[in-house]
Amino acid sequence: MLSIVKVPVFQFLGFILLSSFLYSQALVRHYTFVVEDTPYTRLCSTKNILTVNGQFPGPTLYVNKGDTIILDVYNKANYNITIHWHGVKQPRNPWSDGPEYITQCPIRSGERFSQKIILSNEEGTLWWHAHSDWSRATVHGAFVIYPNHNKGSGYPFPKPHADVPIIFSEWWKKDIVEVYNEFRRTGADPNISDAYTINGQPGHLYPCSKSDTYKLTVDQGKTYLLRLINAAVEDILFFAIANHQLTVVGTDGSYTKPFKTDYITISPGQTIDVLLETNQPPSHYYMAARVYSSAEGVDFDNTTTTALLQYNIGNKSTTPPSNPPLPYLPFYNDTKASVNFTGKLRSLANEDHPIDVPVNISSKLIFTVSVNTFPCANDSCLGPDGSRLSASMNNISFSLPSTDILKAYYNNISGVYGSQFPSKPPLVFNFTAETPPTYLNTPKKGTEVRVVEYNSTVEIVLQGTNLLAGTDHPMHLHGYSFYVVGWGFGNFDKEKDPLGYNLFDPPLQNTIAVPKNGWAAIRFKANNPGIYIYIYIYIYIYVA
């Protein structure tokens, strides 16, 4: 889904002057990314993977709120590539947002692209990743945004002793391009990963991996800020540290009311900031993560990745025991545990960190989110009943164009996209029925956008369906953060459910998971012109 907003010149100039005043201490920082194949050994075998600057995960960038980045990307790989800055709003600068054929053409092999990343009110942990096919499986890294230069510590909590990015990702023994191409060719579910990783390492439970397990060395009696990032391609994960509670203080580049928890649930693309107090007897404690998968009858990677939290004793680290206990993690399909965690997220909503939740809504939208199929000739595909798996929003499965949509809009190139993305489901049925009619499984194909007016206030209700396989649906909106004002199970009731919305301190996020056979309601103000995708399976939103 896409949306378009037109901005008067005086408003644009006012924005520039205001921004210059607010971020007078901001810096312009320059970085270089070289995208190239690099040999890496995991799970007893070596293969080439696509990397940035030879690193997996890629380099962590440290900046301050309001800074601007000039990034030169050199593509030395054999494939096209783009880089997306996940959670960065890029005010009035959609040309550097990253999604191929939406805001830009991909960077071709052997070419260079200079990208401008403009920060505004983001503060905390975000991340960057490739936005071409599945290359983000290995092309990704942390993006740490500290408070303003002139605000001292700036944290709404005591300054931690240190902060550490913790990146979850996946590893396939096969080449990821082969995995993706086979998925596209057969129409079946993609091959599941062979391991999950923490900061690039699978951990001691996998073959040939124990000695390289990621280790975080800490001092007793300190507080550490862990910046958790889920860079897994598809999977929601549970995470915990043995014998330690975590205090959640932020998500998706925004602070939250602190709350203690024994585990966290983190969707693909999401970031969560937690404080770790090293208040246990000096020893080794396992950190661990494994999948949350709610879809019935669908294969998933049921392995567990681990890392070690090791305490210092004087100038020496403790000797690891042969088998430290694993932390408790909820069962793989524990939907209650998943929503119990995410339902606790609340914005700070105080004088230093105010919120601005839209109350009077001018554009109300309802989008169904479904897993679907397309028929194949002679039932020749390997999806259900010989079909090809797909997905849709409001019964439209997105078709990627060959010309980027932003270019088509600004150059008035016709035939690239349509502007008829529906504001509500064209087919109304019992979305979460146990056995919906099978004729609903096949959606339409299209490259459709949704136009929204500049400065309009938007509410989108994302309604999951039980077509083919009811499951949680991770969703990410480019160009904006949004307030999650409500969620629930079953079919959304437009009369009753809004009465329970949280308009006082809803979390400000850019990535959420619509619960299995449930719904989520988000609100934002359409004040950032451009073309931005609302991505579940390549469905887009467009503001110009």
UniProtKB/TrEMBL annotation:
Cofactor note: Binds 4 Cu cations per monomer.
Names of required cofactors: Cu cation
Reactions catalysed according to its record: 4 hydroquinone + O2 = 4 benzosemiquinone + 2 H2O
Pfam families registered for this protein in UniProt: Cu-oxidase, Cu-oxidase_2, Cu-oxidase_3
Entry keyword annotation includes Cell cycle: no
Subcellular localization, as worded in the UniProt entry: Secreted, Extracellular space, Apoplast
All copies of domain Plastocyanin-like, residue ranges: 35-148, 163-312, 421-534
EC number: 1.10.3.2
GO MF assignments: copper ion binding; hydroquinone:oxygen oxidoreductase activity
Chief subcellular location: secreted
InterPro entries: Cu-oxidase-like_N (IPR011707), Cu-oxidase_2nd (IPR001117), Cu-oxidase_C (IPR011706), Cu-oxidase_fam (IPR045087), Cupredoxin (IPR008972), CuRO_1_LCC (IPR034288), CuRO_2_LCC (IPR034285), Laccase (IPR017761)
An example Gene Ontology biological process: lignin catabolic process
Domain of life: Eukaryota
Family: Belongs to the multicopper oxidase family.
Designated name of the protein: Laccase
